[in-house]
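Predict structure. Chain length: 215.
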Amino acid sequence: MHDHDHHHDHDHDHDGHHHPRPASAEELRARALEALLVEKGIVTSDAIDAVIDRYVNDVGPQNGARVVARAWTDPAYRERLLADGTAAIGELGFAGDEGDTMVVVENTPAVHNVIVCTLCSCYPWPVLGLPPTWYKSAPYRARVVAEPRAVLGEFGVELPDEVEVRVWDSTAEVRYLVLPMRPAGTDGLDEEALAALVTRDSMIGTGLPLAPAAA
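Prediction complete.
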């Protein structure tokens, strides 16, 4: 699904390239080290989970939040971001193996975008960090395609009937990032303050940016 206008193509090529990549040597070593540390009582699984949760919800998405805030404040950057997401995101120093080809899709008053990977859990790590557990789950991967409005409602996103919901299916070759709409009442905020309003879920499409008073 490389064409912006072809937003509902959920058929991956079945040549093996879209399946989860084999664990690297570093990942295998990390898993073995984690198991050993837990076994020896040096750390607990809860402590490891807390570190991962911080990376998932705070450290990683901050990169994407900076991209969104820049697009909200710099029209020329926004145009570059929508035309070539990989290059524009790279301008801010965010790149990597899980973000080689980035496509940015923009929410508007008429269109709301949401991202999924129907076959596995392809996800833009350089801008969003680690994928949340629900993103990798079979129910989300299946249901968001079949009944996106219902799934969004469960995330607390209620959209008017006239708003079109577009579901974008990530692959091993192409990852997507949602550019959410800028919240009302933020005209006087600088880029840093705007970035604080951008949530991980708003860049997946299963959430909305925070209101200024809630940041």
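Summary: Confidence is low (pLDDT under 50) at residues 1-20.
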